[in-house]
Amino acid sequence: MKIRILLFASLILPSLLLGADERPCMVFTGQDTRLIRENLGKYPMFDSVFVQAKSQVERALAVPMDVPLPKDAGGYTHERHKQNYTEMYLAGLLYSVTGEERYAVFVREMLRKYAALYPTLGEHPARAGESAGRLFWQSLNETVWLMHASQAYDFIYNWLKPADRELFEKNIFRPMTEFFTVDRVSEHDRIHNHGTWMVAAVGMAGYAMRDQDLVDKALYGTKKDSSAGFLKQVEQLFSPDGFYTEGLYYFRYAIMPFILFAQAIENNQPGLKIFEYRDQIFRKAVYTGLQLTNMNGDFFPINDAMKEKNYRSPEVILALAIIYQRYGQDPALLSIAKQQGSVALLGAGVSVAKALTIEKKPPLFPYRSMEFTDGERGDEGGFAVLRSGSQDDQLVVGLKYTGHGLSHGHYDKLSILAYDAGHEILQDYGAARFMNVESKFGGRYLPETKAFAMQSIAHNTVVVDEKSHYDEKISISEKQHGDRQYFHAENPDFQVTSATCTTAYPGVAMQRTMAMIRDEKNSKPVVLDLFRVVSDREHQYDLPFYYVGQFLYSSVPYTAYDKKRTTVGSANGYQYLWKEAEGKPSGPVKFSWLNGSRYYTVTASSDTGIEVVFARIGATDPNFNLRPEGAVILRNRTRSAVFASVIEPHGLWDGNKEISRDAYGGVASVAVSASTAEGTVVQVLWKDGRVWTVLVSNQDSAPAKRHSIQSGARNYEWTGDAAIVKY
Amino acid sequence: MKIRILLFASLILPSLLLGADERPCMVFTGQDTRLIRENLGKYPMFDSVFVQAKSQVERALAVPMDVPLPKDAGGYTHERHKQNYTEMYLAGLLYSVTGEERYAVFVREMLRKYAALYPTLGEHPARAGESAGRLFWQSLNETVWLMHASQAYDFIYNWLKPADRELFEKNIFRPMTEFFTVDRVSEHDRIHNHGTWMVAAVGMAGYAMRDQDLVDKALYGTKKDSSAGFLKQVEQLFSPDGFYTEGLYYFRYAIMPFILFAQAIENNQPGLKIFEYRDQIFRKAVYTGLQLTNMNGDFFPINDAMKEKNYRSPEVILALAIIYQRYGQDPALLSIAKQQGSVALLGAGVSVAKALTIEKKPPLFPYRSMEFTDGERGDEGGFAVLRSGSQDDQLVVGLKYTGHGLSHGHYDKLSILAYDAGHEILQDYGAARFMNVESKFGGRYLPETKAFAMQSIAHNTVVVDEKSHYDEKISISEKQHGDRQYFHAENPDFQVTSATCTTAYPGVAMQRTMAMIRDEKNSKPVVLDLFRVVSDREHQYDLPFYYVGQFLYSSVPYTAYDKKRTTVGSANGYQYLWKEAEGKPSGPVKFSWLNGSRYYTVTASSDTGIEVVFARIGATDPNFNLRPEGAVILRNRTRSAVFASVIEPHGLWDGNKEISRDAYGGVASVAVSASTAEGTVVQVLWKDGRVWTVLVSNQDSAPAKRHSIQSGARNYEWTGDAAIVKY
Description:
- Chain A is of the alpha+beta class.
- Chain A has two domains: 1-120 and 133-237, Glycosyltransferase, CATH 1.50.10; 370-709 and 717-726, Beta-galactosidase, Chain A, domain 5 (Distorted Sandwich).
- In chain A, helix 3 (44-62) packs across helix 4 (76-98), helix 4 (76-98) packs parallel to helix 6 and helix 9 packs antiparallel against helix 10.
- The longest helix of chain A is centred in the first third of the chain and has 23 residues, at 76-98.
- Chain A is elongated and about 90 Å long.
- Residues 1-20 of chain A have low confidence and may be disordered.
């Protein structure tokens, strides 16, 4: 497509000639205008975004404007007001870039309609829950509206007659910001993504109206005492590493108001040095968010999460551009931008598009094994990621020992997820929700989110006595977190991480240690997974593996419930699992599945009376709200135990070319040789005769400490947190 | 990768200098040698195939040769003998192209090992079924071995010492061809893909040994009376349209011996004009095979079929190149070759690669709505395909009214399958098999193929009284077929096809008429599906829709069996279906699912007491051999009835960008206004007030005939097989 490049030279350029009150001056400034004008037609990725925006606005200009009376929560009026704010914003932007007055007229006319409508509104007729809006059923959408409208207003501010400015401020911006800062003060001053959206919107309205008092409320809380507000949120929602406490799904959502408002602050109050704040926390947040994706860009779906979300989402495209521009144009970000396939409609987007035009093969994003702390001071647990292999065939495991993660947090601690070669192999279910799908509860969170997906049995972690962690009490869970024990990624052949949780079940201490072990004799690395539970009372311990793919076989002799089927349990999420089969192993527990072109086998120790339950999600689900996916649950009734498992990717399968290699994998068995408060010793036996002895500490990290465990006649000794001996 | 281009000029080139007995002279001739030598280094697609073959042979040359005693049916010895024939063939080819003697030595050494082994073998120790081999558990694999070995022998024939030739013929080629033509004569003279492989192998061995008698047995049957053999197979297995009677999965498999042996015949007995045979039947076969794929290349999975198979399979790559070269280099084949991403390692492959280097954007393959006849004379029913939309967003439905399709045929008649935008929307299950996956019954057909996948309830067609078509008796089914009624694709806005089957159930006449209707008011075309059953006795009629994707909702009030679950029935495949829910509609039957980025809704008439069963595959499946996919079954207990349904793709869903449009679709209801022996009249009501009246004949095609149906006070009149009136 050829871009029609406009010649601006002969036009009267509005914003650039007015010095008194420099506008636009929000996320988008004269600098952005200049960058775009100078570069249109040069960089196809940016041009295509610009052309798309232009054609969207042209379509809007060609049809009658509609600012309907708010009615529904997800139907026409809802969608229309969303469409309106986007069109207003883009029209303002186009006015700034092209100088064509018809765009400014469009914004003015729409704001006039809102100025007529807004003062007539009470609470939204379809409101639900605590924080109703007026234009929208929830105030959250209304803050997004305000953020866009404030910027649209800013774009045409200098062009507007004073009477219009007065009208818009009096009828829209004043009452709406008052609504937020007074009626919705608890939302405004809340440390939560909803709060972030609200303070960003209020702050932008403040800048648009040149109302520093309003801006200060946004920055420091309505009391202006720094007890709440944007800066407090920046402090409390991110750990020092930039880990966003709600998880990746909400990171993706919240990063937009965080970054956009930061940009507005920088443009209006550069003295605050917001992009340097907390040792460049915004930079860290974006890099951390990107690290916590699978190689195909999918965000790790811990807590409430929709699996469709990946780093190609519009919010991340926006954030990436600003981070790229603000922090030294790191070329490693360009490989992500290339995958995103689009750029932000900002000056920063021009920079990214330009760099991608020059740098056809940007360096790969530096994915690596890393641990991330959670909590304001980084002392509330965290999340560890082990990776091995090239970016196009990488094995990835994540271990969750974070804090609760606010209202969308799940209770599970020490759960894992695994990916290989871009595929999800062991899944965290995420949330039960079909985003925006009206027939699924209006696209909102489905009841099965709380009833199943949030329950601990929906996760790859140990569940004690069929109750969720923290007995599903957020009041307790939100005060707790897992604890890092150690993390070592120095040796690419033997990476190891360990975390504990002693608070999920009173009287049961849990520890999970994972080692990613690479060996030249194996085609792929394997993961040794040690889940240790310690109690002085007998409990039922369930450890599910939510495999993704076609189940192949199990070594466990089982009874299949294949004529009549009932649920695995009756409460705490168990009622959502069909019991497909159950059995008692007579040797090592093995089960195997196929995903993409590779086989996966879990080989688990079975020396302590393990039972195995084969389950499938989908019971107690009359509305077909769940995905019918499978799990294998290792079950043990005892006081203390170690679930020792090797997760082994192996072989190759190509149904089209009829290739199948190494369908059974190489691990023969796994056995726990010893496990004490000091450490655990496990032996992995390979079919080709190799034996690995893995020795891990069950204590806090002490790299120089000499460990010794007596087990029967044998004494195991090693130095440091973990060791492996191969023979 | 840079290709090392060998300079041949200074070498003694073996095959090109020897005129007396021109070798190689099989599939591959001196002409191929020349074409490859002249063009190496010019066309990346061909170079990459050549380099791959070379490195495979170099790896083989670098390790000890192994020709093991046959032992297993899918383990090491099986795979090793397969590997050996490939390496032998490729080494022979490389000798021919490069003139490097070490390749010839490799082939000779391997043939010597086989010459030592073969005479010692009796029937394979892991034989199963009727046609055991000696090197392999089934003779089928052994024919593939012979086809490759004959060609490998041919490549080095002139280079070999006479003593070796004598040894190989005496110890391998004579006894093996005798084994096939005498001991396995029923397989050799059988009209079936196994027979095709065998005659092709025997014929090639005949050409290699210059034994015309053996070739004649291959061509005309062991009796040499044209009662069997290759030519008979070419006649009987393809319809005049080139439809391969076993279905697409076996088309893909059989096309390899068909095309390769045809090539060998052409190179040895050009007087037979094999590529002109039956009005260029090989050309027709390949084009028909390609037409019977979805837009992503997947073959329609009727009868026993593995869904991994698509036109990128090696057999089709081979066939395409030869067809391209033999029949005028049709550029439309190049777009398929481009999708295949690879070319044949033949002179023909050079031609394809060359054309693709010149033609970067070849014309699209001419997918279009078509019908295909089945049977030697084209009078045994057939298969109809309706298509609408551009190739990247095409709606496709197929209607099966073929003959049985030999031993891998399924009984179902009048079943449909549907694809949209490259996705499977309504599925034919195919076969229950995980090709080559050892843990799944050695990769062979699973028992669930016969017990479930072959049963009629596993297909989107009407099942009467819970029994499969033809009561699951192949002796009856193989003598029957559906019958074409009419097919009209002239009007892209109203395409229609109709077929009948009166033989599947004595006393029940079935007819299915499908219309693909495009309308500028709809974003996508819809399919109107009319399944009419006529009987003078009451029966239970079940019509399943095996939807693919996430079930969203149904308008039918239902009872969900979500705490305890039992099977839908107890026999004939029903025992493999869990009954998830059942209900009786109070208005139109609607159910909806999501697949990819689109919504799909089926709206069915419910005026004759329909019940609805929501089912999921996977009961009676203790070994987890089935895929847990869903179906909605419309059930009616009556004498005669019409199931009238609209299959409607609609809207857009993007979970990442949070876009959802038109989630409910536009059809309000569907009602049968009249249905007689003369015709059926159906009304489709749209939510926006539009009404479509569709009038279809229930008789043989008669485009000029005036139809008239009285229904109550109304009289419906139309001319021709089908008409639509919109208001």
